[in-house]
Amino acid sequence: MIFTDDEIRTLIDDSMEAMANTNLAIIYNAIGFTRKINKTHESTDFFSNEEIGEIFDSLILNGINILPYPNELDFIKDIMEKKIDLNRLVVWNLSRQGSNNNQKSLITSLCDFETIPYIGSSVYAMNLARNKFHFQKLLKSESLAFIPTFNIENFLNEIFSETDRFLLKKSNGSASRGILSETTSKSHPELTEYIQNNPISKDLIVQKFIDGYEIEVPLFQINGEFKALGLAGISVKNSKFLYGKTLPEEMFEHSSQYDFFDFSDFAINCINYNSLKYIYQTAIDIANLLELKDYCRVDFRVESGGNIYCFDISTTPYVTHHSSPNFLLKKRGFTHQTLLALVFSAFNSNVGNH
Q1: Which of 94, 120, 180, 220 could form a disulfide with 346 if both were Cys (CB 3.0 to 4.6 A apart)?
Q2: How many CA atoms lie within 13 Å of 200's alpha carbon, on the beta-carbon side?
Q3: pLDDT tens for residues 125-142?
Q4: Are strands 118-119 and 89-94 parallel, antiparallel or unpaired?
């Protein structure tokens, strides 16, 4: 359920030969390098030059030959014109352009069509994980840490307790995309009044608002089985428990605005948890339910009483220096090189399933 240090070392050692004999095409979007397919696409979805540089540096130090493509169409052109040797090629799709549910899916679709091995989840799983209305219904069907979620019409016609609080959010995209402070932690009458007096986009949904700790659970799939690196909590200005607010997407553009902390240690030593097994198992069950592959991240809000609610599932989580998996590995004495090698180790152990 949780990787031991020895397991991590063995995985890295076992993957070295495969890594040395691979050409890794990385398709990514970076500010200043990527030509936007849609000029209105938000730059917060793109890597900074520093972030993508961190990934390249660690891969090179791991002995991997990189074929970088900051533009999706350039990679597609080279594949179609047979300018790339497919015999030793593995693709890592970190691109984020596209529309609605199809964002991120162009390169993976091409790899499926051309039977090119790729790191990460299928187009189906990526798109499902992006649609918060749909995956919440799946989680509810399996009683897996779901958050009550409604389309606008159903929300307006439901009856709720006076103590219930809600927020408006986009049905697609990252967890905090499109969330506004004026539509967060509102009662049913308050949010109803806002909806009735403002133009509301069709892609918005309503979710019950959860006060609590915000935690990330990075998972890696080895030989078809997921294990976790640990539990990384997020603190803002030294505040670990988040009352009445979400973390705005803009915050993640600047690593100085938030910190990670070891939620496992904190939960056992500071808030008297007896076990964290249920959090790890729920994250793994969610990854399996959505048929995720290789590596992913499952995010929860944790109430003061210990109840957990999954609000986001990332099929291509950040693996930069300032990321939850790197934080958890660094606490154990590993480097960023280890994190990138672990991504490749997971893919290599599952390659027959891609």
Answers
A1: 220
A2: 21
A3: 999 999 999 999 999 999
A4: parallel
For the record, the structure tokens of 90 come out as: 């593995």
Return all residues near 72 (Cβ < 8 A) that are at least 6 apart: 27, 37, 95, 97, 106, 107
User: Does the pLDDT of residue 313 top 60, yes or no?
Assistant: yes
pTM: 0.94
CA distances from 60 to 64, 229, 319 (A): 5, 23, 15
Beta bridge partners of residue 262, listed in sequence order: 232
The pLDDT of 278-301, averaged and rounded, is: 98
